[in-house]
Amino acid sequence: MFQKRRARILLALFVVLALVLVTLDFRSEPTGNDLASRLRGGVGVVLGPVQDGLSTLVRPISSAASNVGELVEIRAENARLRAQLAQTEERRLSYDDVVRENDELRAQLGFRDRNELDTVTAQVIAQGASNFEWTATLDVGENDGVGPDMPVVNGEGLVGRVIATSPTTSSVLLTIDPNFGAAVRVAQTGVIGSLAGDGNEPLIFEPLITDVGIEVGQELVTSSYLGGTYISGIPVGVVTRADVEDGQLSRTVDVLPFVDFSTLGLVSVVRTDPVDDLEPIELDPSPEFTAPPVDPQRPADELPTIPAPNGTPSPSPTGSDT
Amino acid sequence: MARALVIGLVMVVVALVEVSILPVLTVSGFTPDLLLLLVIAFALDDGAISGVRVALPAGLLTDLLSSTAPLGLSALVYLGVGYGVGAARPYLAPESLTAPTLFAGAGTFLGVGGYGLLSALLAQKSASALLITEASLVATVYAILLAPGAFALTRYVDRQFPIEVSTSSNVGAGG
Question: What global pTM score does this model have?
Answer without folding.
Answer: 0.73
